[in-house]
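Bench notes, afternoon.
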Amino acid sequence: MAEDDALAQLREITNLPDDVCMEILANADWNLQRALQDFFEGGESAGRQNTSTTPSAPQLRQRHVPAASAAPVAVATPAPAAAATPAPLAPNDALPAWARTLPPWMHFVLKLAFRTLNAALHYGGSFLMLLGGFFTTLLPTAPAPGREEDFVADFEARYGTEHPPMVAGTWAQAQQRARTAVKFLAVYLDDPTAPRTDAFCRGILCSPLVTSFIAENLILWGTPAYGARGKQLMSEIRLRPTAAPAVVLLACVSGRTTHLGSLTDVRSDEQLLAGLTAAMERGDEILAQESSRREELASAQRIREEQDREYHASLALDREKQARAEAERRAAEAEAAAAAEAEAAQARAEEERLAARKLKAERLPAPPQEGEEAVRIQFRLFTGTRLDRVFRPTDTLQTLYDFVEVSCQDLPSNIGLYSTHPKRLLAAGPSTLRDEKFHARQLVNVDLIDEADE
């Protein structure tokens, strides 16, 4: 492949036929520079100095044929004719038509210029590389960039704490700070190796005028220009690597970052403030749109919150009403259940009272027969009712109570029988009338039992 390239280059330079170029390259061991040198010294005859040993063009081309295609083939060839010695060509015959008209001294000048250019190309590249490596060692090297969060501490170690407020965080944190405050983000690209960095930082960036302006209008974040973030930012905004120290103004809104301007080679704080003001004016519409968008979002949020509060208040009122209604319903149910239970208890008590009265009426002894010993008792009730009945002296006081309860259905349960003279409570029990010394005719008062008598 290299031999084909050399053949094509020699043919293009000398404008000679392929077979002549191949002969020249073959005599020069396929070294293009030697072949060109032989050509300019001897012309086309440089390739025909030894025709008896120089292979022909077909034989030279056969060198590039693969071995598989070089198998011997029997071919009938005519008998070789007597070799005729070709006449040698003049040196000028190998030159292009325009070069043959030049005088001989011009040919010499062209050859000399070509050889000088060839030597310069050959040796000049190596010399320039050595020279560039030497001067590179003399240039100051930038320190290795640290973390983004440590830039403020490094800046203060070099220039003190009297500087504009600077975000001590990452690139993402600085962008978020600018979005939250709806302010422009100013990025300071630092290069400690630049000759004008100290003068820029001490006399311009940290000046009271610039410090006050940045604190009021901007969010400032710094990063080394030779660091990964600095290189990426400079590449995105097409800022040359030697531009640092520089200040880049950005607008970070709605998830995108817009480049508003770059300030390089600043010589005074007035120049810096003028450049920042001009860049801010270009981005005022962006911040205005962002402020309007945020105000709309805040207004919509306030409306939603107000609606939510009204909804929750209404929901709480409905729940309170439901709870109150539920409590009233449960109270009514409980009251109804209590009333039903009381009614049922009253009904059961009435049934029990009726059953007890019936039982008492059934066990009440019959009045004594005529001729039997009897005691006539007149009952005077506190209600004004009077009862009269004849009992046997052997009947008990409990029989008297049963008679009164059977005869008067509406009497309360806490009644008592009282003797008249003296007034004494006759307690229900097995005591008989004879035991109580009842006369043949006896008056008994029926009254409510006093607490003192219980």
